[in-house]
Amino acid sequence: MEQEKLFSMPFAKVYPLLVNKALRKGRTRAEVEAAVCWLTGYDGQALARLLEEGADCRKFFGDAPAIGERTALVTGSVCGVRVESIHDPLLQRIRCLDKLVDELARGKPLEKVLRN
Where are the alpha helices (DSSP H) in the chain? Predict the structure, then answer.
């Protein structure tokens, strides 16, 4: 039931939380946007449009143009759960994004966060 609540939550509510997590650690909104765009394949304009439209997490990640193979590059733990062991594809994508922002917040260079 908790997952369904998260899936139906507007991404516009989740995004500021991710940005604030990064800002508190001296990172920038642009770096968070870069991580979101890298993971999903959206460009800055599409991201802004989806945030404005109030797309829920299911639509935001479900309609992402280039998310497939990129999630496999993100490994490690978020909240004590290994990202690569999550079976639900939508939950895995959400946790991958959280992991990328965690890495930014811990001071990892953006190039490494984006697996370049």
Answer: 2-7, 11-24, 29-40, 44-53, 57-62, 70-73, 89-105, 110-113
